[in-house]
Structures are given as structure tokens and as C-alpha cells.
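Side project, low priority. Logging it here so it doesn't get lost.
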Amino acid sequence: MRVDKRLYFIVPALIIYVLFSIYPLFKGVSLSFTEYAGVGTGTWVGLDNYHEIFTDHRYIKVLKNTMIYAIVVVVFQNGIGLVFAAVLNSLPQVRNLLRTALLVPSMLSLVIAGYVWQYLYAPMGGGLNELLASLGLSSLQQVWLGDSKIALFSVAAVHVWMFVGYSTAIFLAGYAGISSEIKDAARVDGVSPIKSFFHIDIPLLAPAITVNVTLATIGTLKSFEFPYIMTLGGPDYATMTLGLRIFTLIFQDFKYGMAAALSVVMIVLVALITMVQNSYLRSREDRI
């Protein structure tokens, strides 16, 4: 019997994929039905972990925080990135220089960026409050990370600041695919830059919008680095996200079963939102 030589390349990769992706996934799902402290044998509890997740107000708040965080980051990161890309596309002389400058924040370590912004947000002597005071806007000074009403938005702003350059770069790649003849024809017809942006640029940038929105959504729904570094999920669970809560359940509370159940919820949430988004955005591309 002759064996297809391609199997020699496929089988090792398949084995690695099963061992490090499929098996851990099924193991995590089975673990989510137990109460397990990391040592010994887990106790079967059925759906108790899931029941607690959807009835305990703390977990409801975690789910709410995660959704708000994702919406804020996705909207502002892509909105600002789209505006930056439109401006840079109209300035070819400085486009490459400014595009590189926008990517600089994303080159930093997440830990370093988190600690830097934690200092900038400091209520006493922090750079942001000092800047507001120097501009005569002392009334706008806040305890940015200590006020439960604005802490989540303050952390989300750092996420936007760090990754808006990525969105800008993807949108600029989308602009490169727009024929200059279309823009020239619109200009000859007297279409204003604002109308051109909304009625020509945005529709033709549909594939870039799909990529940016999908990547930003997946990244933010799993995010835990900035909330962990800057606030540890506080104050009063105001910045506790799904990713951070899973981390604390494992390494602080030693509730592996609950952490596994919350991980399953996060996977399902990410999958459902991504599928709905892709379905809508792809259908929008087809209509265009």
C-alpha cells in the first residue's frame, strides 16, 4: 500500500494540534463540571459552577464589564484609527513617518505601558491631572483609577491608545486598494471631502473594517493585562474582566473548576459575537 507523502507533514502537525489544543479544550470543559483546587481529585458538581456564574451578581458584573470594555475599545479604536487613516492618506508626504509614530505605542511591553499610565493617572502628581491644572481645567481632575464610575473607561482608553496604530495601518492598507480614479471622479463632480469619506471611503473600506472589528473584538473580550496591572480589577470589581477573573480564580482562589467554567463561557461568548459580527460584516461587503 502506497502512503501519500503529504501525510508525513500533516500527521505531526495534527498530533501537536490535538495534544495542545483539542485535548486541553475538552479537559477544560470536563473540569468545569467539578470543584477542583488544583491538587487531589475534583468533586463532580454538575452545572453548579455555571449556575453561580449566571446568578451571582459578581459574575454578572464581570460579564457586563467585559462587554462594556469591548464595545468602548472596538468603537473608539476603530473610529479613531479610521479618521487617522483618512488624514494620513491625504498627506502622502508624511504618511510613512506618522504611520510609524502611531505604531510606537504598540511596540511597548504591556506591563511597561500599564505602569506608565498608572503613574499618569495618579490623583496626586499624576501627569494627566497636572496637565489639566496647568490648562486651568482643575475642575476636570479625577481619581481616574479609583472612581468606580470611570475606572473601566480609563483602562479602556489605554488599550485604545496602545493599539489604535494597528487599526490605522490596516485602514491605510485598505485605502491603498481604492482606485485613485474613483476619488478623482468624485473630486471633479464637486463631492466634498466629508461626503467622499462617508459615501466612498467607508463603503470601499468594508474588508478592512471587517478585519479591524474582528481582531479588536477578540482581543478585548480576552483582555486581562491592563485591568490586572493598573487596578487589579478594582475598585469594587469595577474593572474586573472575564480574563482577569479567570486569572484570579486560578492563582489566588485556587478554584480551577470555576475558572474552567468561566473560560468555557468566554470561549462561547467570543465565538458567538465573532460569528454574528462576521456574518453581518461579510454580508455588508457582498451588498457593496
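Brief comment: DSSP finds 13 helices and two strands in the chain.
Revisit when time allows.
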